[in-house]
Design a protein that fits this description.
This protein has helices at about 1-30, 55-60, 75-80, 85-100, 130, 145-155, 160-165, 185-190, 205-210, 220-225, 240-255, 275-280, 280-290, 295-305, 325-330, 335, 340-355, 365-370; strands spanning about 40-45, 65-70, 170-175, 195-200, 270. It has about 400 residues and is α/β, with parallel strands linked by helices. It has a domain at about 40-105 and about 165-370: P-loop containing nucleotide triphosphate hydrolases (Rossmann fold), CATH 3.40.50. It has a five-stranded parallel beta sheet, with helices on both faces. It binds 2-acetamido-2-deoxy-beta-D-glucopyranose (NAG) (4 copies). The site of one 2-acetamido-2-deoxy-beta-D-glucopyranose has 7 residues, from α14.
């Protein structure tokens, strides 16, 4: 009797299995729409430029317990092949970003010593995922981690931990400043193994110049690559790098919003640093929504703290946005730069300033009059996916 029951169970079991197999077969055959085959992981690329607040935005993602974050992994490509131009390196950078999204860290073989630790990865300690389990045993996944403490405790773990950790997350987020053309990324949008979304972070070019002036030396190698100087380091005294950065923001924004291909639908979000500074909680929730991330209470408390200048070590944090001096910070260039300089920047970046919604200043009087708001209200949804008309 027992045997009979047991064989009935087996028959039922086999029937269910066959049904499942048939169902899976149907899903993978062409009877069902291809959209169902998108991978379950979400891949977010924060596309920005030097000194535009991207480290801050990167932290907003890095500290999320569902996110595996790397800050500028393509730094390794540029450092290794510094005699090439940004344009030539685009493809190697894209390939590296794709591999990292897929948690295939063997791509770093080309750029790193064969024997390597976690700490050989550029800016590894800003990644909460590399400071907590399973990459490092010193912190929990839900912890808010801090770069200094992580550097002390987690640096000697083997490099293989990067890949092991990556595979345990639902979201992989990469911040890059080394793309100057959205079309270079098209193959990643159409790649069925990826589920790519882009957050394009921009900032007023005049504020960017003010910030770049505070780190002239640190930028000279990257400048050389942008300007294709065959490995010679250069200062950006004539704003030629700024010109290229502004050109690329215009190209990326235009390509994504004016008659974009179907595969970009709902996969591009432009964020202005100034809006983030003025109303951080609403901009952050928009980014999280776009990225399919939820806001847990602990993370919300941390975000509240860092955007209101509270919590431990507030002075030394890389992102000291406080509501009280938020507008001051984003307007500091108006007191610091000479009108001559501003005129020159406005010349090379006129297109970007207009397109991204900033106002030009025509005189030193306008420059210094802080009651004059140069950040135009953001026109969200000025573009509708279904109703654009063809150009005449
Ligand atoms: C990697 O970690 C090991 C073990 O702690 C250490 O002996 C070695 O020096 C480290 N290597 C590098 C390149 O930091
Ligand atoms: C680039 O520099 C290297 C030496 O640093 C030199 O051998 C090479 O000829 C240069 N290439 C060009 C195109 O100038
Ligand atoms: C935020 O700041 C408050 C007050 O300083 C502190 O008690 C709390 O732990 C902080 N929250 C986080 C997540 O750091
Ligand atoms: C903001 O800037 C104004 C004018 O430069 C200054 O008087 C004020 O103290 C600043 N406020 C803060 C909070 O830094």
């Amino acid at each position: 009797k027992w045997l009979r029951v047991s064989s009935t169970v087996v028959v039922i079991f086999i029937t269910i299995q066959t049904g499942l197999l048939l169902f899976m077969y149907a899903r993978h055959s062409s009877f069902l729409p291809h959209s169902e085959e998108k991978p379950s992981q979400v891949h977010i690329l924060i596309l920005s430029s030097w000194r535009s607040g991207s480290s801050f935005v990167g932290q907003l993602f890095s500290q999320h317990p569902d996110v595996f974050y790397l800050m500028e992994p393509a730094w390794h490509v540029w450092v290794t092949m510094y005699q090439n131009s940004a344009k030539v390196l685009h493809m190697a950078v894209r390939d590296l970003v794709r591999s990292v999204f897929l948690c295939d860290m063997s791509v770093f073989d080309a750029y790193m010593p064969w024997k390597r630790n976690l700490s050989d990865l550029f800016q590894w300690a800003v990644s909460r995922a590399l400071c907590s389990a399973p990459a490092c045993d010193s912190f929990q996944r839900m912890d808010i981690t801090n770069e200094m403490a992580c550097k002390t405790l987690c640096g000697k773990y083997p490099f293989s931990k990067v890949e092991e950790a990556c595979k345990t997350y639902s979201h992989v987020v990469i911040k890059e400043v080394r793309f100057f053309d959205l079309k270079v990324l098209y193959p990643l949008f159409t790649d069925p193994s990826l589920n790519l979304k882009i957050i394009h972070l921009v900032r007023d070019p005049r504020a960017v110049v003010k910030s770049r002036e505070q780190s002239v030396k640190a930028l000279t190698r990257d400048n050389g690559i942008v300007l294709n100087t065959n490995g010679t380091k250069v200062e950006d005294s004539k704003y030629l790098v700024m010109q290229e950065i502004c050109r690329s923001h215009v190209q990326i924004y235009e390509t994504a919003t004016q008659k974009p291909p179907d595969f970009l639908k709902n996969r591009y979000l432009m964020i202005r640093f100034e809006d983030l500074v003025r109303d951080p909680l609403s901009e952050i929730s928009e980014m999280y929504k776009f990225a399919d991330l939820s806001l847990a209470p602990r993370l919300e408390s941390w975000i509240y703290n860092i955007t209101h200048g509270q919590g431990p070590g507030k002075k030394k944090e890389a992102f000291k946005i406080t509501s009280r001096d938020a507008v001051n910070v984003s307007q500091a260039w108006r007191n610091v730069l000479s009108f001559q300089k501003i005129k020159k920047i406005q010349e090379v970046c006129r297109g970007a300033i207009n397109m991204l919604g900033y106002q030009l200043v025509d005189s030193e009087k306008e420059q210094k009059d802080l009651s004059l708001d140069l950040v135009l209200p953001r026109r969200r949804n000025q573009f509708s996916w279904s109703s654009f008309s063809p150009k005449n």
